[in-house]
Amino acid sequence: MDTAADSLTTAATLFAGPGTTNTTPSTNSSLDFRLVLNGNVQTLSTHNAPENDPIQGLLFVPSLNPHDPCNDIAAPFIPPNVTRKEDVSPFGDHSIALAPWISVECTHSFLKASRRDEPDALIFFLPTQDEKEKPPSLDDPTWVLGDSDEWKNRNEYPVYAIPKPDAATLMQRLSWYSGDATSTSPHGSDSSVVAPHRHHNENVRLFTFIDLGKSYPPPKNGKKMPSLWGFILAILGTILVLSMLLLVCYQIVQKRRRRRLRRRIEAGDADLESLGLNQMKVPQEIVDQLPKYTFPDVNAPPEALLPNNMHSHHTKFFTDGHGSITTIEEEPEDRDEIDADHESHVQRPQPATTTTTTANTTTTTINQPISTTPSVDRLSYSQTTCAICLDDYEPGLSIVREMPCGHIFDAHCIDTFLTQNSSLCPLCKKSVLPSGTHPIPVTNVMVQRDYMQRRTN
């Protein structure tokens, strides 16, 4: 957890002297001293720093051993009558020490003295720093004491640093507010002469507050206030959940639209060319199911009108291209049907008995309509030219294949076209695929194209 110091505030505080019942600290406007450092506090050690509360206590200067040579070295930076530990002990258990960072040996001496006084925190300042700027960062060589930072673990309190000009101001105030208003400072100076506006039975001390960047005072219910990251994560989580719900709804709607479009395609109500399905190929097994027969002579009279065959059976032989021979025996037709076929010049296959003979088996089907057997006299449209190769049909010789829409083409041309180019009739653009057959899945792009086409129409 981050326990770096965010700001430091020091203010002069009045304490009741002996013989009074009020021991609550208070500020006095006549003292008019308040020092606030925002962003100029450098954190040197966070060892044993509190996690939830700021650091607060009365400010003092640690006392070195009388024989320590650092007393003379630190004398230019520490007035002789500053507030010491014994000056703040009667007014509370919480205290904060202030000392100069002079050299490695003197710094160790102040750290050792602070361990005896047990402050809540220790504040250093660099005597060589004249600018009122934030002290150097923690990785600066200035803070190296030659023990691999072991001093941070050896001292049971956090350590901070402030600029020298602010520390000098605090040292001056500490020299004013040591002892009480009626006595002489134990360090040899009458503080009542130096510090005006002090009243009888009043003691003034510097109270320091180090803010660690957390909310203070804490909530009354004992719970922490949610951080900014908590709000950000909550918002991101809400957006993520809503996005997933919208995605699921979108997928459900698109699935229903795909099913609806598939039904329209199977029913033949959709324009396959506008949907981008004009290049869909037809499997060979479906092509083989389309009727294939010899182009008849359109000018020849129907065979059924010949006198010799009017009341006799018709027997026709065909080959399906695989070595099988099919024999069709047609029943006699009445006169009305013959006249109707003569007017249209098209002879439609009638229910008949079909016998298919192969090398090994013979199959007979009775009264079944012929749908895929080529017929010499079957023609749905009076087409005399193949629309693909532009060659004229030769009666009795050209083998044609008929589309479900009724158009006929040269068998070789249309077979190649359907299996390699498109599943649509080259003339009317109707699908050749049987109803209910759609090998390519319907996509969202196709649904969008169909929607835009119906909207424009």
Strand order in space, largest sheet: 2-1-8-4-5-6-7-3
Nearest-integer average pLDDT:
74
Q: State which percent range the strand residues make up.
A: 15-25%
* Record field, number of beta strands: 15
Domain RING-type: 386-429
GO biological process, one term: ubiquitin-dependent protein catabolic process
GO molecular function: ubiquitin protein ligase activity; zinc ion binding
Transmembrane segments: 228-253
Plain-language structure description:
- Mean pLDDT is 74; it is low at 19-24, 181-201, 215-219 and 304-378.
- This protein is 27% helix and 19% strand.
- The protein has helices at residues 70-74, 85-88, 104-117, 150-154, 164-176, 191-194, 228-267, 284-287, 335-344, 411-420, 444-456; strands at 7-16, 34-38, 42-45, 55-60, 95-100, 121-125, 159-162, 202-211, 292-294, 314-319, 325-330, 352-357, 362-368, 399-402, 408-410.
- Strands 2-1-8-4-5-6-7-3 form an eight-stranded mixed beta sheet. Strands 10-11-12-13 form a four-stranded antiparallel beta sheet, with no helix packed on it. A three-stranded antiparallel beta sheet has the order 9-14-15.
- It is rod-shaped.
- 28% of the residues are buried.
- A hairpin with a 5-residue loop joins strand 14 and strand 15 (408-410).
- Among the domains are: 7-211, Glucose Oxidase, domain 1, CATH 3.50.30; 299-377, no CATH class.
- The chain is an alpha+beta fold and 457 residues long.
Keywords, please?
457 residues, alpha+beta, Glucose Oxidase, domain 1, 8-stranded mixed beta sheet, 4-stranded antiparallel beta sheet, 11 helices, membrane, ubiquitin protein ligase activity, transmembrane helix, Znf_RING/FYVE/PHD
